[in-house]
Amino acid sequence: SCTASNSLGEATATADVSGDAHPAVIHSNHVSDHQHEFTIEWSAESESEIEGFEVAVRKEGSQKWELHKVIMNMMTNETDANSTDDINGDFRSELLLTDLEPDTIYQTTVASKNKFGLSSHGDLFAFGTKAEGPEPVTETDQAPVTDAEVVTEPKV
């Protein structure tokens, strides 16, 4: 903190200097195209290189979080999911969640990790999986068209 005083009084201020990465911002859609999987896509800003991410996921209403670690490849600055960074310190990544329940709302949040430590988790993001239903019919699934007997009733 810094304190300044003069004949009019005294003032104290504190400056917080941190190298922590910013919390990640999730860019995914809120509705999955699939019943059992969802891809979370996010970005995070950091002045120093991001080493990885911590992704927390839970069913809406549950208290238990499932944690996923996404590690950056320091040589290529990518994760297995092809994360990238740009000149502005914006790091992007994604994670495919599998074995999800159909027609279910989930919540997720992402924290970033750099050499200064793990950031706080970002805003809570909710997404839903697709409901179970009949699979779409394709042309190959349809029964072949056969000759049908046409019966006409005589006019009265």
Helix content: under 10%
Terminal Cα separation, in Å?
103 Å
Poorly predicted sequence stretches spanning 5 or more consecutive residues? 75-83, 145-152
Q: What would the principal axes of the Cα set say about the shape?
A: elongated
Mean pLDDT across every amino acid position: 81
Number of strands: 11
Q: Characterize the largest beta sheet: strand count, sense, and whether it forms a barrel.
A: 5 strands, antiparallel
What structural category arises from helix and sheet content? mainly beta
Order of helical and strand elements? EEEEEEEEEEE
Helices, by number, come to 0
Radius of gyration: 27 Å
Proportion of residues in extended strands: 35-45%
Short description:
This protein has 156 residues and is mostly beta strands. It has no helices and eleven strands. The strands form three sheets. Strands 5, 6, 9, 10 and 11 form a five-stranded antiparallel sheet that branches.
Fold and architecture overview:
This protein is mostly beta strands and 156 residues long. The chain is 0% helix and 40% strand. The chain is built from no helices and 11 strands. Strands 5, 6, 9, 10 and 11 form a 5-stranded antiparallel β-sheet that branches. It has a 4-stranded antiparallel β-sheet with strand order 3-4-8-7, with no helix packed on it. A hairpin with a 4-residue loop joins strand 7 and strand 8 (90-97). It is elongated, with a radius of gyration of 27 Å. The termini are far apart. Mean pLDDT is 81; it is low at 75-83 and 145-152.
